[in-house]
Design a protein that fits this description.
The structure is a homodimer of 391-residue chains. In chain A, the strands form two sheets. In chain A, strands 1, 2, 3, 4, 5, 6 and 12 form a seven-stranded mixed beta sheet that branches. With 391 residues, chain A is an alpha/beta fold. In chain A, helix 6 (203-212) runs antiparallel to helix 12 (277-301). In chain A, strand 10 (308-312), helix 13 and strand 11 (334-336) form a beta-alpha-beta unit. Chain A has helices at residues 43-53, 60-84, 125-132, 141-146, 156-163, 203-212, 224-228, 233-240, 243-246, 255-258, 260-271, 277-301, 319-329, 347-360, 368-371; strands at residues 2-8, 14-25, 28-40, 94-111, 114-122, 136-138, 170-175, 178-184, 194-200, 308-312, 334-336, 381-383. At the A-B interface, helix 2, strand 4, strand 5, helix 3 and helix 4 of A face helix 2, strand 4, strand 5, helix 3 and helix 4 of B.
């Protein structure tokens, strides 16, 4: 069957849409990408999203409105990816929509004796179901958190399906806004999968680029700024001490840690020492590579074999970041998803197509060893599409 | 089958829980109340909810956390009503949860050429499904709004089932935080039902009581303060001009109109004239009765027969309000729900039990003539309970 997966990542730049074909044989799914695209948000939306995640107080009415407006943009992305693939909407069985994360609070806050973890993804799925007529499964993280998990990461379920190998132990790294890793030991079962967030992906670099260029640039295209800069040893060693990097998995994080708060703190501490902007970007780039390599060394290599590291996400396009990562992980080879036949940009959207499909068929998709949940649960909420007109 | 309905109304005082029995015969539902109770929120929660609805900026993290914490309180209410009725959770087929409204913005805000209406109910249903193991249908308003409706009112669907009569034309009034009415013309079909919000219910009176007593009292118990006060003609005629009262249905409103903003404006305009607190309460009470009677006169009586007005909701317990209403509507008799055999406090919670049941069975429950939606749609999101453990 054909399923559409939708997500906007922590970098809040637009809607990733993947149209996939899913087939089930002998209880095992096969998933194949038919079409993928990214539909950028209007600039005003991106700014509002960054404001929402900033921690500064916001009128609740803004959030309420944005939830529905982003639902419209998600619905439009679904219609556009179907049109691109020339597949009519009524031949699409399901949509799986992750939505847009605006908060993720996996550390419990106590209410009396009750630990409360929480997360908030917006992009109203009722709007998606209404505009497309397609049954939509959405909002995958809350149920895992209700079951005591961190609600993340969820991509390992797809990583296992695509990359697990009887003879090769692999680490699958995704460098999105945040970077995360899935460790697939050779021949291991789904339940033995290990996965966790490692720290910043592109978020910290992007945040600093935006700040030092006064908003003129949003990313360090091709790693050009980092290449011109010099790594500042004092700042780097300060960053390297960040407790999240050294915390044992399972763990997950987001923009509230490695977004504006960290950008602001780096700018403040560097101002006194008059570090050139390029040096800040160079240092943040090496720190990002460190966050990834250090987590792999301490929490994966120490525990088992590792034949290769396969990297996906926007970070793959930053050659300075990739070179620093390869150097730090040598002699373990580091290669992009494309080298094993998959489009790395599409992985997250494909994940939510698969998770939507599985929930609709009453199959749990959280991996308790990965999220820390007490048990496997059905993720997401089901919003029926067009109903058969009643009499 | 047994179904639990949960809601916390705009007065944000606690969770209403109704356990009902629903039977379907020849396509028509019968619903019977087994047990009902209200489980008050902790005081800290009520304060946070009023802050959220106040319009003042709030950290998004507070909302994110509160959504999950209120989900816990809703789950607890479900467990408690089942225990009260001595029915084990695994004999309960479904939960229908409305959640707690924090914003309702039915007037479209334009994004380019796109009108965006929005609403926000919290009380994470994934938590309810996880804690109870019962499949939960929740968040009923967004789909109707996605279909161009106001997302409210939704109780008319149950009103029709319980109160429609072949020979008598009835107006069903609910005085909750907001007051609304359902007009059931004798012998009319569901599609001919007319219903809309009329203005403040208890919200304005409660808000003023809280303010003038410095927080010592939350409601005017038994209408005692109103009875001691004198209606101020100048203030009353100013209030009577409120445009919402005179707007043609369909229409819906909430705390953002008749909550803190109106309380603040009344206090400011009365301060200069040194009106005694009791006079403010007396005036607000008569204004509330006016909002109801004026809407019934202009938008119901002018259009059709009306044999009786049946009133439910917390407002029934305020004899000053009820007397003012009866006087304004005479000679049409005004009587409480109880006089026709139904517990008025339970109506809203029963509504969401019924709506959850119908959505689960793929029956639309919005009434387009009531909400203004373009078509009947399936309301809500389905969150599966315990899944049959996979192999």
């Amino acid at each position: 069957v054909r399923v559409i997966g939708l997500i906007s990542g922590t970098s809040s730049d637009g809607v990733d849409a993947a149209l996939v074909d899913i087939q089930k044989r002998a209880g095992r799914c096969r998933i194949e990408l038919i079409s993928f695209d990214v539909y950028p948000y209007p600039g005003s939306v991106r700014k509002k999203l960054i404001d929402l995640a900033s921690g500064l107080p916001q009128p609740v009415a803004h959030l309420c409105h944005l939830n529905f407006y982003i639902g419209e943009l998600f619905a439009e992305a679904a219609r556009r990816i179907a049109r691109k693939a020339r597949i009519p909407l009524d031949e699409i069985a399901l949509i799986g929509s992750h939505g847009q994360t605006v908060q993720h609070l996996p550390m419990p806050k106590w209410e009396g004796k009750r630990p409360v973890r929480s997360t908030l993804q917006i992009g109203e799925p009722s709007v998606i179901a209404e505009r497309t007529g397609i049954t939509t499964v959405a909002d995958f993280r809350p149920r895992d958190m209700a079951a005591g998990g961190e609600g993340a990461p969820l991509t390992p379920y797809l990583h296992y399906l695509l990359f697990s190998h009887p003879k090769r132990s692999r680490a699958i790294v995704n460098i999105g806004g945040i970077s995360n890793v899935t460790y697939l030991k050779a021949g291991a079962s789904l339940e033995e999968t290990v996965a966790f967030d490692m720290g910043p992906g592109n978020m910290l670099i992007d945040g600093l680029v935006l700040a030092v260029t006064g908003g003129r640039k949003e990313i360090d295209t091709g790693g050009k700024m980092a290449r011109r800069g010099k790594v500042d040893a004092a700042l780097l060693s300060e960053l390297m001490r960040h407790p999240f990097i050294h915390r044992k998995p399972p763990k997950s994080t987001g923009r509230e840690v490695f977004g504006l708060p960290m950008v602001t703190s780096i700018l403040q501490s560097s101002q006194a020492r008059r570090l050139p902007p390029e040096d800040l970007i160079a240092t943040a780039t090496v720190f990002t590579a460190f966050a990834i390599s250090e987590n792999i060394r301490r929490f994966i290599v120490k525990k088992g074999a590792l034949q290769e590291v396969i990297v996906g996400g926007g970070g793959v396009k930053n050659p300075v970041l990739m070179a620093s990562l390869a150097e730090r992980l040598a002699p373990i080879p580091v290669q992009p998803f494309e080298s094993v036949g998959h489009e790395s940009r599409a992985i997250e959207a494909m994940t939510f197509a698969l998770l939507g499909y599985q929930t609709f068929h009453l199959q749990p998709t959280n991996i308790p060893t990965v999220t820390g949940a007490r048990r496997p649960v059905l993720l997401g909420k089901i919003i029926p599409g067009n109903f058969p007109q009643s009499k």
